[in-house]
Amino acid sequence: MQIDFSRFSEPADTEGLVEFLTGEEWPFHAGIPDAEATRKRAVDGLYDNEESRTFWILTDDGRRAGLVRLQDLTDDTPMFDLRVAKAWRGRGLGTAAVSWLTSYLFKEFPEITRIEGSTRQDNRAMRAVFRKCGYVKESHYREAWPSPDGTCHDSIGYAILRRDWVSGTVTVPDWNDEPGV
């Protein structure tokens, strides 16, 4: 399947964004966003500004299958949010999107040294995507990700270094650096 990425444009894409984010459950996010709050954030420019860029993931027939939001773009370590619509999950869009956004960020922003992302511990599909795309597990925060039902899940952080992306290698953190252990 071919996919493409189209940059979010406010106000033209605002109602589509609201519909996309509020139209289904996001099991590994903090529930369904509020429509009015999402609309206000879009109108206020929070999906496309100096700090943030948002892109639609489009199928070969132009359908919106997902959304990529790049954040902290003025920092040397941006983060991202990825959402793939339920109907399109399990088809490789997550891997394609993370590969694309990694290349986009490192090419578009030469000062970026690393890219970070995080997911819930039980989001096995996203964790596999991170590993396939050369990201390395760097953090494990216990009970740090609350879900709408009140359950707290562990939060897992991944990152890729520019030098690893350029060389095609993976540098693993030194997990055994505790003194006296």
Automatic annotation (TrEMBL):
Keywords of the record: Transferase
UniProt superkingdom: Bacteria
PROSITE patterns: GNAT (PS51186)
GO MF terms, alphabetically ordered: acyltransferase activity, transferring groups other than amino-acyl groups
InterPro entries to which the protein is assigned, alphabetical: Acyl_CoA_acyltransferase, GNAT_dom, N-acetyltransferase
PANTHER family: GNAT FAMILY, PUTATIVE (AFU_ORTHOLOGUE AFUA_3G00765)-RELATED-RELATED (PTHR43792), N-ACETYLTRANSFERASE DOMAIN-CONTAINING PROTEIN (PTHR43792:SF16)
Record-given protein name: GNAT family N-acetyltransferase
